[in-house]
TrEMBL record:
The lineage of its organism: Bacteria, Pseudomonadati, Pseudomonadota, Alphaproteobacteria, Hyphomicrobiales. It comes from Rhizobium leguminosarum bv. trifolii. This is Uncharacterized protein. SUPFAM superfamilies: TPR-like (SSF48452). TPR repeats lie at residues 141-174. InterPro entries: TPR-4 (IPR011717), TPR-like_helical_dom_sf (IPR011990), TPR_rpt (IPR019734), UCP035836 (IPR014596). Keywords: TPR repeat.
């Protein structure tokens, strides 16, 4: 029997939120994001501002540094982060496995290893690894938020949201936590609540473009397309803005296509006269 409109809508919501939560995990490194430590190749701009060509070039340079010294924790973690941003999750996990073997007591390495496991779909292993990286006497809010994102991927929304709130107790009004909390509600289809948290996240002084892209997606999913595009373009270069809007339009057009198909399925006489209900 053809899927209902609700099924189609839920599918796009889940795909969008899951991919963005993984992105949040990838961007939440406890190692220096700008990659300027020691012998690690210096980059010309922050990773989040790079286009696809620049990301590939940076990944190649980090890969060469990793080949020369695969035991170095900073090089390994940063290389794995870039691999994940290029969609090479399996390779990123393999890199982090080797780095973790060489640095078994390094909290930063364990945290990055857990995130690589999560990106590769090894959710329970990721929770265990990140748990080993955590210190009860000085808990790291980034790791707590990462645990929440993993729990969301496992379908444990209530547990995930409690983890986000625990992280907010340590780091109030942190936009990345608020954004993950908002996307948690996207996963369960509560777009109004999601928008509330995402607007709060986007309004924080330290919010980055990924937070605003999440907000744009949720606004667009509610049918307010001009407003969504305006949010997606905010405070970005024309090239970055065009890329954000292209991504947003792609996600929303996919949802619209599914809605049209579902509506067609409901039309009397469609699919040999069958009805979805």
């Amino acid at each position: 029997m053809p899927a209902s409109l609700t099924t189609f809508t839920n599918r796009i919501l889940q795909r969008a939120a899951a991919s963005l939560i993984v992105l949040a995990l990838a961007g939440c490194s406890t190692t220096k994001d700008r990659m300027t430590t020691g012998s690690v190749p210096k980059l010309t701009k922050p990773v989040e501002e790079m286009d696809a060509t620049e990301l590939r070039s940076a990944t190649d340079r980090l890969g060469q540094a990793y080949e020369k010294n695969p035991r170095d924790p900073v090089t390994g973690v940063n290389y794995a982060n870039l691999l994940r941003m290029n969609g090479r999750d399996t390779q990123a996990l393999a890199v982090m496995q080797q780095v973790a073997i060489a640095n078994p007591g390094d909290r930063n390495v364990l945290a990055a290893y857990g995130k690589a496991q999560a990106a590769a779909g090894q959710f329970q292993q990721a929770l265990d690894t990140i748990g080993r990286a955590q210190t009860p006497d000085r808990p790291d809010w980034k790791l707590i938020s990462a645990q929440g994102a993993i729990l969301d991927q496992m379908g444990r929304a209530s547990d995930a949201r409690q983890r986000y709130r625990d992280a907010l107790d340590i780091q109030p009004n942190e936009p990345s936590i608020l954004s993950n909390l908002g996307m948690s509600y996207v996963l369960t289809g509560d777009l109004r609540t999601a928008e509330t948290y995402l607007r709060s996240a986007a309004g924080q002084p330290t919010a980055d473009s990924r937070v605003r892209q999440n907000l744009a997606l949720v606004v667009g999913l509610q049918g307010r397309f001009p407003e969504a595009e305006q949010i997606a373009r905010r405070e970005l270069s024309p090239q970055q803005a065009d890329a954000n809007v292209a991504y947003l339009r792609g996600m929303l057009s996919q949802q619209n296509s599914w809605q049209k198909l579902a509506a067609k399925d409901k039309t009397p006489g469609a699919a040999g006269g069958s009805n979805t209900n």
